[in-house]
Design brief:
Structural class: mainly alpha
Number of strands: 0
Shape: globular
CATH class: Mainly Alpha
Number of helices: 7
Number of domains: 1
CATH topology: N-utilizing Substance Protein B Homolog, Chain A
CATH architecture: Orthogonal Bundle
Distance between the termini: 38 Å
């Protein structure tokens, strides 16, 4: 199997956001969501392993991810726009379970997803929450933020 090319993780995140949104709306099992994306020919350009890791990881860990996010929210998570909720869960999963991905990349990619798919100012909300969450999850965030 060939290695995913440049941008494959970005496309995996985008597809995972769509899958997580679908899961939030329907409660479908992760396997059904993955199978649906596997049937879609356009999904061939993404890092499938990373896509699966995010889908399964968020769904399995949703309670702990929500607990992680809650102190940094200005309202109950259930009141957060569904797209922004999915973006925040995805980012919280990456910050806490994907140490190989730099925290700045996670925040930048999450803000871009929220800008592309969320409410008008949703990207600002996502950025604000993740700016507070990142140092709590990744201690190197604080010491590395001054460069």
């Amino acid at each position: 199997m060939k290695k995913p090319g440049p941008g494959a993780r970005r496309r995996a995140r985008r597809a995972a956001l769509q899958g997580l949104y679908q899961w939030q709306a329907t409660g479908q099992p992760a396997e059904d969501i993955v199978a649906q994306f596997d049937e879609d020919k356009a999904s061939g350009n993404l890092d499938r392993d990373y896509f699966c890791r995010i889908i399964h990881g968020v769904i399995i860990n949703v309670e702990s991810l929500d607990e992680m996010l809650t102190p940094y929210l200005d309202r109950p998570l259930r009141q957060v726009d569904p797209i922004e909720r999915a973006v925040l869960r995805l980012a919280a999963f990456e910050l806490s379970h994907c140490e190989d991905v730099p925290w700045r990349v996670i925040i930048d990619e999450s803000v871009e997803l929220a800008r592309a798919f969320g409410a008008e100012q949703g990207h600002r909300f996502v950025n604000g929450v993740l700016d507070k969450l990142a140092p709590a999850v990744r201690p190197e965030t604080e010491s590395g933020s001054g460069d």
